[in-house]
Specification:
Radius of gyration of chain A: 13 Å
Helix content of chain B: under 10%
Number of helices of chain A: 0
Distance between the termini of chain A: 41 Å
Order of helices and strands of chain A: EEEEEEEEEEEE
Number of strands of chain B: 11
Oligomer: heterodimer
Strand content of chain B: over 45%
Number of strands of chain A: 12
Largest sheet of chain B: 7 strands, mixed
Structural class of chain A: mainly beta
Largest interface: A-B, 28 and 26 residues
Helix content of chain A: under 10%
Radius of gyration of chain B: 14 Å
Order of helices and strands of chain B: EEEEEEEEEEE
Strand content of chain A: over 45%
Number of helices of chain B: 0
């Protein structure tokens, strides 16, 4: 069975600063995908970034980037130049065969002005 | 834009009632999913479906059933609602895994169900 662990239930950051959210996972699959989803107060889950496990290069989407350490089974999310609109619950997830996602517990990020 | 809609944002039901949660997607996605979201537990998969009339149990199917009579619609049924089913329910859809890409799941806005 797959497990995903987010060890930081809550984090806060000042506007314009950088923050890193941690995620570790366990899987026996050889090929899999990793995701970070964001759930703002509106409750609408939105994909932030995705990473394919066989790609060594870390994914980047504008201010969002990941640090993917396959051997350590770690997949952290870095948010640069934090904005008030980044305030949300962030979920790390893994996908294996059959399109199933396994989610972590979530990290509530608050960006302070 | 992909759109996933859910029939209610908020729902209050009584213990023992039969509850239907409806989900509709407009992007012709093969896969559809039902999750429940609880604080500290993240999202947990209840049931999913790869195609019309097909269903697979997720991690917590007990007390739930599903129906998929049309490709765009996936219903979650609580046969006899109980207080421990008070939760946020999220529906999602995605393309079939055979496309060979990381399949983003698109989520609905969620239904917050309270069972009294």
């Amino acid at each position: 069975a797959q497990t995903v662990t987010q060890s930081q239930p809550e984090m806060s950051v000042q506007e314009a600063e950088t923050v890193t959210l941690s995620c570790t996972y366990d899987t026996s699959e050889s090929n899999y995908y990793l995701f970070w989803y964001k759930q703002p107060p509106s409750r609408q889950m939105i994909l932030v970034i995705r990473q394919e496990a066989y790609k060594q290069q870390n994914a980047t989407e504008n201010r969002f980037s990941v640090n993917f350490q396959k051997a350590a089974k770690s997949f952290s999310l870095k948010i640069s130049d934090s904005q008030l609109g980044d305030t949300a619950m962030y979920f790390c997830a893994t996908e294996t065969s059959g399109s199933r996602l396994t989610f972590g517990e979530g990290t509530q990020l608050t960006v302070n002005p | 834009d992909v759109k996933v809609t859910q029939s209610s944002r908020y729902l209050v039901k009584r213990t023992g009632e039969k509850v239907f949660l409806e989900c509709v997607q407009d992007m012709d996605h093969e896969n559809m999913f039902w999750y429940r979201q609880d604080p500290g537990l993240g999202l947990r998969l209840i049931y999913f479906s790869y195609d019309v009339k097909m269903k697979e149990k997720g991690d917590i199917p007990e007390g739930y059933s599903v129906s998929r009579e049309k490709k765009e619609r996936f219903s979650l049924i609580l046969e006899s609602a109980s207080t421990n089913q008070t939760s946020m329910y999220l529906c999602a859809s995605s393309l079939w895994a055979g496309t060979g890409v990381a399949n983003e799941q698109f989520f609905g806005p969620g239904t917050r169900l309270t069972v009294l």
